[in-house]
């Protein structure tokens, strides 16, 4: 705009300059012919000098007024042009000065309104985009967006963390080249082909483990028919699958554990009815086995009931002051007969006044379970060492045996229901496989912690740390 005004004024001033020269010549000749006819050379020279100066002043005044008027006329247009260029470049905060409300003022006002509307629309759009991206990035499911050409446009944070990938590994790449999972590529291809929602459950190897996903794929359609891309949401259902498998295993284990004593009871009862009852030795032997299997069945049912109570949300403990030393001594006395039968020595030492807030009956159940396990897995002639020590605001109970020990890979599973390190030894000893699961629940209910240390062939240690005061 400035260049145009400069060129225009230059042309105008040159034209005016020649017009003024022509006027000076014409008017001077007229004055010389009629007004100053017969005048002296000095008079004529003075007339021409006056005429030139007068017209020069008039020319300069005309130039000044033309520049001033031109500036007043073009300034609003320059401001409007500058704002228009800023808007075109995406700067919607630009504004122009609104002059008097003539045509140029109205143009400036209209441009300012347009700029404000564009700024409001852009701010609203950016806010919605930020909200959407925040939602996508923080959602508890993986999300991947693929355009109509098959290029991956978006991968959210949860997806990257779950699949252990970096953004640049997949972004802006064709899905069947970037995604290493054939099963997942097939689902994406199916969604593109049928242009309908697809939902499937798949298992994929992620790192060193197999993860299970519920995958939902949906086409993105514009105007109801034009496909612009597809979006996929990945729900990690690995924990659900694990719980489902645990439920199946639990039902299978319970069925097996119940079936064994029931089969024995039925078999020996039938044998007695078939004539063995007449033989006193057989009768006493079979009845003794029936009694043992009944006790085992009763023990299993009682453990199942205890475990069920411990897992209930409204389960509560009978909190009271408990002397851990005295409770441990009582538990050892109860189990001493079984230890003597295997010639196992139980050593016990304790700090004085090891008192905590706890449920005495539940704590006794923990000690009996742990001592029983140590006796079961310690060979004849072995030793069990039990200590109770005070450490600041905590009391530690430790039981260490010289038993068969536990392999390192089996340690994380020993608190699972029905899990046995040595299945044959556990069943022969009458164990139900629920003892350590019950121990763990009771310890957690007391806000305590339990740790296991073991070496195969050397023995196992269980260390429980109690708080002296209830949380």
UniProtKB/TrEMBL annotation:
It is a multi-pass membrane protein. GO terms for biological process: cellular response to phosphate starvation; regulation of DNA-templated transcription. InterPro entries: BphY/WalK/GraS-like, HAMP_dom, HATPase_C_sf, HATPase_dom, His_kinase_dom, HisK_dim/P_dom, HisK_dim/P_sf, PAS. One of its GO terms (cellular component) is plasma membrane. Residues 253-470 form the Histidine kinase domain. The chain crosses the membrane at residues 12-31, 46-65. Pfam families: HAMP, HATPase_c, HisKA, PAS. One of its GO terms (molecular function) is phosphoprotein phosphatase activity. Keywords: ATP-binding, Cell membrane, Kinase, Membrane, Nucleotide-binding, Phosphoprotein, Transferase, Transmembrane, Transmembrane helix, Two-component regulatory system. Residues 71-123 form the HAMP domain. Its EC number is 2.7.13.3. Its main location: membrane. Residues 128-173 form the PAS domain. PANTHER family: PHOSPHATE REGULON SENSOR PROTEIN PHOR. This is histidine kinase. It comes from Exobacillus caeni.
């Amino acid at each position: 705009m400035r260049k145009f005004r400069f060129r225009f004024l230059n042309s105008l001033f040159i034209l005016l300059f020649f017009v003024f020269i022509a006027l000076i010549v014409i008017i001077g000749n007229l004055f010389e012919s009629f007004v100053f006819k017969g005048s002296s050379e000095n008079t004529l020279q003075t007339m021409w000098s006056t005429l030139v100066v007068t017209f020069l002043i008039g020319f300069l005044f005309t130039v000044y007024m033309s520049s001033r008027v031109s500036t007043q006329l073009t300034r609003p247009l320059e401001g409007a042009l500058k704002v228009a260029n800023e808007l075109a470049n995406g700067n919607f905060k630009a504004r122009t000065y609104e002059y008097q409300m003539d045509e140029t003022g109205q143009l400036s006002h209209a441009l300012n309104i347009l700029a404000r509307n564009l700024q409001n629309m852009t701010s609203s759009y950016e806010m919605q985009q930020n909200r959407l991206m925040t939602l996508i990035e923080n959602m508890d499911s993986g999300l991947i967006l693929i355009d109509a050409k098959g290029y991956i446009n978006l991968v959210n944070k949860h997806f990257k963390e779950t699949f252990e990938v970096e953004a640049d590994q997949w972004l802006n790449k064709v899905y069947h080249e970037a995604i290493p999972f054939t099963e997942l590529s097939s689902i994406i291809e199916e969604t593109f082909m049928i242009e309908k929602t697809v939902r499937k459950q798949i298992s994929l190897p992620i790192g060193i483990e197999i993860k299970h996903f519920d995958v939902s794929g949906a086409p993105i359609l514009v105007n109801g028919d034009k496909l612009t891309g597809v979006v996929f949401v990945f729900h990690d259902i690995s924990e659900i699958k694990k719980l489902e498998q645990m439920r199946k295993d639990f039902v299978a284990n319970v069925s097996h554990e119940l079936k064994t004593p029931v089969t024995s009871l039925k078999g020996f009862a039938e044998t007695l009815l078939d004539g063995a009852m007449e033989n006193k030795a057989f009768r006493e032997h079979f009845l003794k086995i029936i009694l043992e299997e009944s006790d085992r069945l009763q023990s299993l049912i009682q453990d199942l009931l205890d475990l069920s109570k411990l897992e209930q949300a409204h389960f509560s403990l009978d909190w009271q002051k408990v002397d851990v030393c005295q409770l441990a001594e009582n538990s050892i006395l109860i189990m001493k007969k079984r230890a003597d039968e295997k010639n196992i020595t139980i050593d016990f030492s304790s700090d004085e006044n090891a008192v905590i807030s706890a449920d005495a009956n539940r704590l006794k159940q923990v000690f009996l379970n742990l001592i029983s396990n140590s006796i079961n897995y310690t060979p004849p002639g072995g030793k069990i060492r039990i200590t109770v020590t005070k450490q600041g605001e905590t009391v530690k109970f430790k039981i260490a045996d010289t038993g068969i020990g536990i392999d390192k890979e089996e340690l994380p599973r020993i608190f699972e229901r029905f899990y046995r390190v040595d299945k044959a030894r556990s069943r022969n000893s009458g164990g139900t496989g629920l003892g350590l699961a019950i121990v763990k629940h009771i310890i957690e209910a007391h806000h305590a912690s339990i740790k296991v240390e073991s070496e195969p062939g050397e023995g196992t240690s269980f260390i429980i740390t109690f708080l002296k005061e209830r949380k």
